[in-house]
Structure formats: C-alpha cells, structure tokens
Specification:
By secondary structure, the chain is of the alpha+beta class. The chain folds into 2 domains: 213 residues, Aminopeptidase (3-Layer(aba) Sandwich), CATH 3.40.630.30; 140 residues, Aminopeptidase (3-Layer(aba) Sandwich), CATH 3.40.630. Helix content is 34%, strand content 28%. It has 13 helices and 13 strands. A hairpin with a 2-residue loop joins β10 and β11. The relative contact order is 0.14. About 1% of the residues have low confidence.
Length: 389
C-alpha cells in the first residue's frame, strides 16, 4: 500500500506533494514539465494507463518556499528482479533458490523516471533542474521508507545529468551504468553514402543480406501514425521479439501502441512491412527535434532470420529518415553487435541506486557494481566511446 495522494514531505526550501495523474489533468506545470522532450507529459499518461505489470504510479509535485511549482516528477513502485540479465552459473543458482523462495533477490523499489524510456527531471524550466535534484534528494528516501521500498533508483538518466545529480552519487547513492541507447548520424547525402563510411566486410555482408531479401517475394513498406487498424496483426510480432530478450522490465500492450498514435500523432510513426499481403515486421518509432527514435521492433520469425529482416527494416527506416531531413537515428538498448558494425555510438544512461537502510547500503553499494547489467555484455567495451559509460 502506498502513501495516499495528498500527503506531503517537507523540503529545506519548499514542499513535495504526492499526487495522482487525475490531479494533474488541468495543471499547466504538468504540461510544461517535459515540453522539450520527445516523451512529453502525454507519454507518461499513456504508460500509466496502458502498461502491463504491477507498476504503482505517483507524481511528486515540488513547490518552493513561495508556493511556485518548480517541477512534477513521475515515480513508480515496482518489485524488481535484481539479477535481471545476469547470465551464467550465478543466475542458475539464484533460479534454483527461487523454486523454494520466489522472492529471493527481488526487492520493492521506488523508481524515478520513465517506466518505458530514458529518465528526465520534470523541471518546468531547465534552469530549475539543480533545485529539482536537491528537492528529490531531500524527499525520495523518506518517501520510499514510508512505502516500504527497500531501494530508490533513478532510472536510465542520460549522462548529461551527471553534474546536476552529483549530490546523489557523492552522498549515499551509487551511480552505475545502465544498458545504453545508441545513436547514428544521418548527415549523409544518401544511404549508399552512409554505407561507404562502414568497413568493407560490413558493407559486403549488408549488401548480401539485402540481395537475398530482394530475391524473395516483394516486401512493401507502409508508414502510418495510428497503428490501431493493424494492432491485432503487429502485436504478436512484438511479443516474438520481446520474449527473446533476456531483459524484460516492461511489457507493452496493444493499448499502448494504439494510444501512442492517437494521442501523439505528430510524433508517432509506425513502419509496417508486408510480404504477399501479410505483415512480417513492424517498428514503433517517434520523431522529435531532428531525431527518429526507434522504440521497438516486431518480427515474424518464420521468415525474419532467412530474410534478414532486422537489417532490411533498419535500412528502410534510415532511408525514410534521411528523406525527411532528420539528422540522427536513435535506438533503444540491447542488440549491440550489429549496431557496433553499423557505426553507432553509445548514448550512456545511468542508474543512481540506494538501499534505504544505511547499514545494508554499505554492503549494497559494493554488490550493485557486480549486478549492474553492462558488465555482462562484452560487445559494449568495443564501442569507440565505451569509456563514457
């Protein structure tokens, strides 16, 4: 049971109010909090309404001493598997214990940020971010304890927040790398010009894959902003890809995909590929400020591997984005080996983690460095900017 909406936490220079999404419907500060981000306030509302799983959503409305709303910060409680993505014998041993104790190495966690995407501070003005960081530092531990959460986690915050969030990493919290996103520059005259920047073997392999796909029955692409008419066809393809991943923090729903297109039509773009009239692949993307964000992919594995649909679809998205004059392509975590060969750079994301019991935190700060996910992916160390993780 979480603290009821309307409860408050005093701050050194203001107050933090716990509110629900309903209380924010007519709040101008809520609309300003993420107005310059690809995932603005509408996205957080979509997640709360559609996300599958035991997420308990709340929002911290942060006021200064004069009663001005300086930020609205999304939060959620979830029970987290601490060895998610950890491979090998250690993971097998944990699973053996869980057959008798299902909650072994799982904890109730208060997470700050976005349940399906990178985290950002919900400051109404960018110049307020340092104040907001201080207010969160003063309130999160108390709020977590009130709600019996063992951990506080600032989830997937981009590296450019490190200076702003320095109070966390220097006092109680441990900053560890999360699985990074990747970015590819699209500042090329054409897709062929982009290919020319890659290594010889990569170019050769890609062209071989494209030729093989093109010898098969024709694959046609369509781009729509509302996936609702096709959601029953594309959703099983999303699940096929999702189930293959060893990281499964959230499971998106049919309602999520429909709501994204209906509520954010100027940003949502769904790419659909058909062969012989049947959908064999789709990609959910968002477009904002010169960048296309590839959020998730769905593939029909009856044909996907034989036709190299991962590379085929990526080529089509990049070509489309170049034709729209977009400057960069950004994709989510995982599947790093092809992204390395395709010339992508890492976009580091950070976790700031603290156990709410001081004695346990001394031990946890050492243990979390062995549990953090990037240490188990050797491909990451091969990226040119891996030192930024």
């Amino acid at each position: 049971m979480i603290s009821p909406a309307g409860s408050t936490i005093p701050l050194p220079q203001g107050i933090a109010k716990i509110v629900t999404r309903t209380a924010l419907q007519n709040c101008d500060a809520w609309k300003r909090a993420f107005q310059n981000r690809c995932k603005d306030h509408r996205y957080y509302e979509i997640l709360e309404q559609t996300l599958d799983g035991d997420f308990e959503h709340r929002y911290l409305l942060l006021e200064d001493g004069s009663g001005n709303v300086r930020a609205i910060q999304p939060l959620f409680f979830v029970r987290q598997n601490l060895v998610e993505g950890v491979p090998g014998k250690f993971r097998s041993a944990v699973e053996a214990v869980r057959r008798h104790f299902p909650r072994f190495l799982t904890m109730r966690v208060l997470m700050v940020g976005c349940a399906a995407g990178e985290g950002h501070l919900g400051a109404c003005r960018s110049e307020d971010e340092r104040w907001v960081a201080g207010a969160l530092f003063a309130s999160l531990k108390k709020y977590a304890r009130q709600n019996k959460a063992s951990l506080v986690v600032l989830k997937d915050f981009p590296a450019n927040y490190r200076a702003t969030l320095s109070a966390f990493s220097s006092d109680g919290y441990t900053r560890v790398p999360s699985m990074p996103m990747t970015r590819l520059s699209l500042k090329h005259a054409s897709f062929d010009d982009y290919l020319a920047t890659l290594g010889y073997m990569t170019r050769k392999n890609l062209r071989r894959k494209f030729r093989k796909a093109e010898r098969a029955p024709a694959i046609d692409m369509e781009v729509v902003s509302d996936i609702t008419p096709y959601v029953d066809e594309i959703y099983p393809l999303y699940l096929q890809v999702h189930e293959r991943s060893r990281f499964k923090f959230e499971t998106l729903t049919k309602d999520y995909f429909c709501s994204l297109g209906q509520r954010m039509p100027e940003r949502a773009r769904f790419f659909i590929w058909r062969q012989l009239g049947r959908i064999v692949a789709f990609s959910c993307c968002m477009v904002h400020d010169g960048t296309i964000y590839d959020e998730c992919l769905g593939l029909d594995y009856n044909v996907a591997l034989d036709l190299h649909l991962y590379f085929y679809t990526l080529r089509d998205i990049i070509k489309w984005a170049m034709a729209q004059g977009l400057e960069s392509y950004c994709s989510g975590p995982l599947n790093y080996d092809p992204k390395l060969h395709l010339g992508c750079d890492l976009v580091p994301l950070d976790l700031y983690v603290m156990h709410t019991a001081p004695a346990f935190n001394l031990i946890f700060r050492r243990a979390v460095k062995y549990l953090e996910p990037t240490r188990h992916d050797p491909v990451l160390r091969r990226f040119p900017n891996a030192d930024q993780l």
